[in-house]
Amino acid sequence: MTTPRPEIGIIGGSGLYSLFTHGREEIPDTPYGRASAEVTIGELAGRQVAFVPRHGRHHQYAPHVINYRANLWSLHTLGVQRVIGVGAVGSLTPSVPPGSLVIQDQLVDRTTSRVQTYFDCPDVAHASFADPYCPSGRRTAVQAAEKSGWPPVEGGVQVVIEGPRFSTRAESQWYAAQGWSTIGMTAYPEVVLARELGLCYTPLSLVTDLDAGVEAGSGVTQDDVMDAFAANLGRLNAVLDELVALLPGERDCDCASLKPGVM
């Protein structure tokens, strides 16, 4: 009997380290080393889904040392065509308060040291990246969130910083002055690597805090982020259930237009 291959992959962010009560684990070989953890494959909303925790099972990998290439390659090797990237983000504006679910449509890369491509010499290609996220995936995510009773903030720009430290107040205020709405540490290079592999990438960003420059106070702490994520985990899982159920089985976008020549 042929083992069913997952068509949807979920990458869990801070606070989302497991997804299935029962599932089989696989450790795909990649040219880039080991993924953050074993990939768990199980059933969600009646479909086969592959899950990998971005930071590892015990949050042992900081944003700047995550093996993003191995994580995405592992999902691709298993047959995944669509990726849902779950992440904790801070808000750069009081109009997007903690507890909001954001399905952003743009990002700005402010990272400094990450390997961000599969196209090492002699394989050279230039990914189209004007619109980083899958348009059909984003539309479906909005529908799923509304159906689950958690109306999302649709659109907006996430600035991705190197981490693992949080921003100074001056940095935070500068980001906000550019009109950017949220701030995180892991969306990049994850989403561009998905694009290079021809995977459709849909973001689900949970706002856990107001960033340091938004209001007076002690600033953001790791405990703030983890506590807020845990408080909203049930709602987030409900959105994931709806999203997995609603995502089209066939890709209906141009996210799969570019793949590395080594494949």
Task: Give your account of this protein's structure.
The chain has 263 residues and is an alpha/beta fold. It has a single domain, classed as Rossmann fold, CATH 3.40.50.1580. It contains six helices and eleven strands. The chain has helices spanning 68-77, 135-147, 169-177, 187-196, 222-231, 233-246; strands spanning 8-12, 24-26, 39-44, 47-53, 82-91, 101-103, 106-110, 153-154, 157-161, 182-184, 200-210. Strands 1, 2, 3, 4, 5, 6, 7, 8, 9, 10 and 11 form an eleven-stranded mixed β-sheet that branches. The radius of gyration is 17 Å and the shape is globular. The model has no long low-confidence stretch (mean pLDDT 93).
Describe what is shown at a glance.
Substrate binds at residues 185, 209-211. The model has no long low-confidence stretch (mean pLDDT 93).
Keywords:
about 260 residues; alpha/beta; Rossmann fold; eleven-stranded mixed beta sheet; 11 strands; globular; Purine nucleoside phosphorylase; transferase; glycosyltransferase; EC 2.4.2.1; Nucleoside_phosphorylase_d
pLDDT below 50 for ≥5 consecutive residues: which ranges?
none
Counting DSSP H or I runs of 4 or more residues, the number of helices is 6
Derived from helix and strand composition plus strand pairing, the structural class reads: alpha/beta
CATH class type: Alpha Beta
Sheet with the most strands? 11 strands, mixed
Say how many strands there are.
11
**Outline, from the CA principal axes?**
globular
Strand content: 15-25%
Binned, the helix content reads 25-40%
Alpha carbon gyration radius: 17 Å
Total domains = 1
- Name the CATH homologous superfamily: Nucleoside phosphorylase domain
Order of helices and strands: EEEEHEEEHEEHEHEHH
The CATH topology label is: Rossmann fold
| Distance between the ends | 27 Å
The appropriate CATH architecture is 3-Layer(aba) Sandwich
The whole-number mean of residue pLDDT values reads 93
